[in-house]
Specification:
Shape: globular
Number of helices: 10
Strand content: under 5%
Radius of gyration: 25 Å
Distance between the termini: 60 Å
Helix content: over 70%
Order of helices and strands: HHHHHHHHHH
Largest sheet: none
Length: 322
């Protein structure tokens, strides 16, 4: 799994095919070098769900009486899952550090430290954006309600706004994958300085990266539907039960061991899907190598095209001098 082998310009479909062969031909090495962080990831994903509130909870049903209570209800509903995602993604970057060590070599501890630094830099960037969007949304919402807009209409527009933001976030994921590969490849780069330039580089190559992301996303979605189906049924049963208790006033119909089964199901699903995530990373690793070769060839072509012009200019200067 040497890095230089993949410095070849390829099409999007060829990148996905090469990543599949790379994954299948090295599945044993990948498993032996990643099973520890993958196990940690699955445990964090499973145990973390025990701390999350159900989708339907009292904070969503009870109408807030004050602005402070509304903020507290929103924070208890939204920020818990956000922190859960941050922690899970942080552990997953430990997995990517092991994969990158197989691809480009180097010391495992150094690669892990560098990978977590990059994740910290990117997480801080998105957390700041998330907080700013929430503050802006809150201030705009308060001013609109005070101006006479009904709460129901405000919620309608807020949902549209968050839907648009979610779409933008989804469309930027290919560029983020590109930035991740670029930064994890180079341990000598400072993640806090190189994240935004690498992200911009991914945006410039967005068309090519989106092709890889689209095909990979369809395959991943089909796999997730199969692997995550038992967990989806368990989560649906849990939230329907919580809804019936809060809204309908019915007693809980679930056994006391139900949260444990949910935890085990999510942990098992996370263990399997983490290897799907590794395959996704290999897709973008090869796509990034292909784009690097394309950029290098473009620079060489531009330099070659500029050479005759420079020679002519020098010749004219010489004739004018004489």
């Amino acid at each position: 799994m040497a890095n230089n082998e993949y410095m070849v310009q390829r099409s999007g479909a060829s990148c996905i095919r090469e990543a599949y062969l790379l994954f299948i031909n090295n599945i044993k090495r990948i498993f032996l070098n990643t099973w520890k962080p993958v196990l940690a990831f699955s445990l964090v994903a499973g145990l973390g769900t025990l701390l999350l509130p159900p989708v339907f909870n009292t904070a969503m049903v009870d109408a807030p009486q004050t602005e402070l209570q509304a903020i507290a209800n929103y924070a208890s509903t939204v920020f818990g899952p956000v922190i859960y995602q941050i922690v899970c993604c942080g552990v997953f970057f430990w997995i990517l550090a092991n994969v990158q060590t197989l691809l480009t070599g180097g010391k495992q501890k150094e690669n892990t430290k560098h990978s977590l630094k990059f994740y910290l830099a990117s997480a801080l960037f998105y957390v700041v954006i998330f907080l700013l969007l929430n503050i802006i949304g809150y201030l705009v919402g308060i001013s609109l309600v005070k101006g006479g807009m009904s709460v129901n209409r405000l919620m309608y527009w807020l949902l549209i706004g968050w839907g648009f933001i979610g779409l933008v976030f989804l469309l930027h994921i290919p560029a983020y994958y590109y930035a991740t590969v670029k930064c994890l490849q180079r341990v000598d780069l400072n993640p806090f300085k190189s994240f935004l330039p690498s992200l911009w580089g991914g945006i410039r190559h967005w068309g090519f990266l989106f092709k890889v992301f689209f095909i990979t996303g369809i395959i991943t979605l089909l796999i997730n539907c199969v692997v995550f189906l038992p967990t989806a049924v368990i989560l649906m049963a849990q939230n329907v039960d919580a809804y019936n208790q809060i809204v309908m006033g019915d007693p809980s119909g679930l056994p006391s061991t139900f949260p444990l089964w949910m935890c085990l199901s999510i942990a098992l699903s996370a263990f399997i899907l983490s290897y799907v995530g590794i395959w996704q990373y290999l897709n973008f690793f090869i796509a990034t190598c292909s784009l690097d070769v394309r950029d290098q060839k473009k620079k060489e072509a531009q330099a070659l095209a500029a050479q005759p012009q420079e020679t002519t200019e020098k010749k004219l200067d010489y004739e004018e001098f004489h």
